[in-house]
Amino acid sequence: MSDLPNCPTCGSEYTYDDGIQLVCPECGHEWARDAAPEPVEDELVALDANGNRLADGDSVTVIKDLKVKGSSSVIKVGTKVKSVRLIEGDSEGGHNLDCKVEGIGPLKLTSKFVKKA
């Protein structure tokens, strides 16, 4: 069992000592060994299909044909969506990205159907 503290950002127990500082392999957070613990914020986290962390303003590419609910439109594979915004996932479909798709309009997407561009 390690005597190293958990990551102050994500709470991971897999931290390791890099000689100068402590590092979390899960979220990439680095901090000084003798630093006071930082408060963990309730920030929105969205991961794409490849496990990359998405942030507000990122561009993403759709990896699967997606039917638009209430319409006969389809968002085709490879469609690039610019400037996504993270939102709290809804309980119905887990849509956690708010965006505007060219030719379709504003809608919500689920991050598991996109990859970071």
TrEMBL record:
Q: Which InterPro entries match?
A: YjdM, YjdM_C, YjdM_N
In terms of Pfam families, this protein maps to: YjdM, Zn_Ribbon_YjdM
Boundaries of every Protein YjdM C-terminal domain copy: 47-117
Listed Gene3D superfamilies: 2.20.25.10, SH3 Domains
Report the residue ranges that make up the Protein YjdM N-terminal domain in this protein.
4-32
Q: Which domain of life is it from?
A: Bacteria
Assigned protein family:
Belongs to the YjdM family.
- Output the NCBIfam families linked to this UniProt entry: phnA (TIGR00686)
Q: What is this protein called?
A: Alkylphosphonate utilization protein
